């Protein structure tokens, strides 16, 4: 494991674009990080309808801190007020910002995301140039073109009532800012060495800093799933992964970044079959799947690198695979 950085971790917040609303990112870094080193760009979970950039798993912060990688957690506009091209515009702006961090012009960037946040990462890999150095999927959604997301008999079992979501559909454009304290990353949860702080206690607050979005906005995700509505909203930029099985797309596959998937094998929200099918399409040279036995969706969202539960073995395996892929490029 790389040695921890010698300077304390700090958090700053920067605006990186104005697309109807101001888009910001939280940057976790230290003063002794190299100014031209690799950057990690992260997109939060929330089904593209809720969530917050403050929700970053501690183990990911530790991983970046140990390697002296600035970690950027970026906001993006939410469905249904924005469409697929709007999401791509936000993802591209965050990627451009990460590549130019600290006045540089071409920093290498690993792009990752949790759950639907990985859809944002996949958009960058599909559409941006140059391609990311690698992708990291944390129980992520690589594409809404997979059949799992387009059959109302799978999830959810019962429809959400239209009157329940009407207030959210009528809202103005917004970014995610709703999060529950246990899932929010706080600097004090780590010691200066970057290891877990055993005395840390989660602050008593209801929401992360921001407007205070209604947490029940998340029911929009089930509502759209039941109506098989995601492709109508994002399909124009969601290229799927069936192309990777086409020999005529070999040059495109060659350019695709190594993609590492962390997945619980008991995940009802993103079936393991989704990531398994994508890994099979991309092939073993381009994709690695790290399965956590008996774990559900976002099982690692409040975990630390040094935690000993079996699920974290899959996370540590994924980190090792990421290190190997970056060393070989």
UniProtKB/TrEMBL annotation:
Residue ranges of domain Alpha/beta hydrolase fold-3 in the record: 41-136
Keyword terms: Hydrolase
Spans through the membrane: none
Annotated GO MF terms: hydrolase activity
Pfam families: Abhydrolase_3
Protein name: Lipase 2
Key word Coiled coil present: no
Keyword Nucleotide-binding (UniProt): no
Organism: Diplogelasinospora grovesii
The organism's place on the tree of life at top rank: Eukaryota
InterPro entries: AB_hydrolase_3, AB_hydrolase_fold, GDXG_lipolytic_enzyme
């Amino acid at each position: 494991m790389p040695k921890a950085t010698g300077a304390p971790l700090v958090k700053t917040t920067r605006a990186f674009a104005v697309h109807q609303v101001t888009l910001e990112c939280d940057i976790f870094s230290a003063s002794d990080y190299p100014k031209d080193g690799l950057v990690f760009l992260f997109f939060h979970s929330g089904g593209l309808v809720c969530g917050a950039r403050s929700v970053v798993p501690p183990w990911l912060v530790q991983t970046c801190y140990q390697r002296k990688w600035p970690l950027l957690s970026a906001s993006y506009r939410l469905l249904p007020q924005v469409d697929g091209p709007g999401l791509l515009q936000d993802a591209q702006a965050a990627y451009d910002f990460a590549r130019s961090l600290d006045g540089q012009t071409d920093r290498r960037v690993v792009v990752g995301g949790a759950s639907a946040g990985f859809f944002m990462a996949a958009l960058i890999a599909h559409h941006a140039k140059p391609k990311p150095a690698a992708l990291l999927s944390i129980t992520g959604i690589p594409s809404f073109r997979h059949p799992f997301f387009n059959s109302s008999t799978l999830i959810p079992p019962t429809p959400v009532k239209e009157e329940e979501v009407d207030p959210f559909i009528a809202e103005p454009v917004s970014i995610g800012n709703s999060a529950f304290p246990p899932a929010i990353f706080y600097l004090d949860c780590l010691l200066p060495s970057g290891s877990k702080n055993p005395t840390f206690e989660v602050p008593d607050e209801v929401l992360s800093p921001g407007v205070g979005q209604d947490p029940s906005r998340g029911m929009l995700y089930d509502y759209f799933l039941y109506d098989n509505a995601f492709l109508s909203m994002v399909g124009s930029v969601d290229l799927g992964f069936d192309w990777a099985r086409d020999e005529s797309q070999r040059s495109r596959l060659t350019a695709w970044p190594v993609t590492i998937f962390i997945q619980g094998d008991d995940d009802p929200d993103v079936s393991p079959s989704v990531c398994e099918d994508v890994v099979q399409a991309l092939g073993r040279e381009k994709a690695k799947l790290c399965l956590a036995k008996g774990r559900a969706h976002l099982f690692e969202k409040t975990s630390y690198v040094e935690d000993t539960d079996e699920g974290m073995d899959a996370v540590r395996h994924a980190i090792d695979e990421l290190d190997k892929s970056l060393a070989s490029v």
